[in-house]
Amino acid sequence: xxxxxxxxxxxxxxxxxxxxxxxxxxxxxxxxxxxxxxxxxxxxxxxxxxxxxxxxxxxxxxxxxxxxxxxxxxxxxxxxxxxxxxxxxxxxxxxxxxxxxxxxxxxxxxxxxxxxxxxxxxxxxxxxxxxxxxxxxxxxxxxxxxxxxxxxxxxxxxxxxxxxxxxxxxxxxxxxxxxxxxxxxxxxxxxxxxxxxxxxxxxxxxxxxxxxxxxxxxxxxxxxxxxxxxxxxxxxxxxxxxxxxxxxxxxxxxxxxxxxxxxxxxxxxxxxxxxxxxxxxxxxxxxxxxxxx
Length: 293
Description:
With 293 residues, the chain is α/β, with parallel strands linked by helices. The chain has helices spanning 92-95, 109-118, 135-147, 162-171, 184-190, 196-208, 226-240, 264-274; strands at residues 2-3, 7-9, 15-17, 25-26, 37-40, 43-46, 51-52, 54-59, 73-78, 105-106, 123-126, 151-156, 174-178, 211-218, 245-250, 281-284.
């Protein structure tokens, strides 16, 4: 384990994690909602430091980032754990678990930089599970990657507090943020989070001038209400800018949510709404012939 950052002591051995908006209050032996940040005798430790669930070289478009060095490749890395509990998580085998029963492949920040430098890609993407929860390793690695003249890309749910987010904005170059709904009720019911911190993250990234793309996964009957969706794209246009890229992705059944795959006509209906306000809208997880240009 490595001592974690962003926590405060609230008692003799009780601590509160301040990395994300959950603000988990932990007594000795407790682990946070992320399942990797742990109170050991009154000190917060990260149990996932350097523990890697996978490395892979991908097209940048797979993140998805369509307007950031298009046609390039990037090395992707992830660990274990997540600070949300989305019922449809496609990477639940790594994000919705701790590391106790996982094979412990480890890489130091220097080794990750070496892998990125030798990959032939533009840099390193922090993805697969939620980068917020392996913050310490990510930041040490991102500093090395940045100093080497390579790019740091973050694929995130955006559920992070402002102070650690500010560190991301100093060292990272491009973000894809999942915006799961424009309803706080939806966030609380289906993700165990809340929407406002995510909106704050989006506004901070856009305000920093860094590259931002947004992914919205459409689940029929749950977050596809046309009126709510129109409010969302209006907010994106008015707050973040009309040139922010929006990926409207098709849901397929996964993990604990057994809702049928989203009909393509629902996707196209929402695409038509989005295009009234945004310049760059794409359909994802659909047959190639349906992909927007």
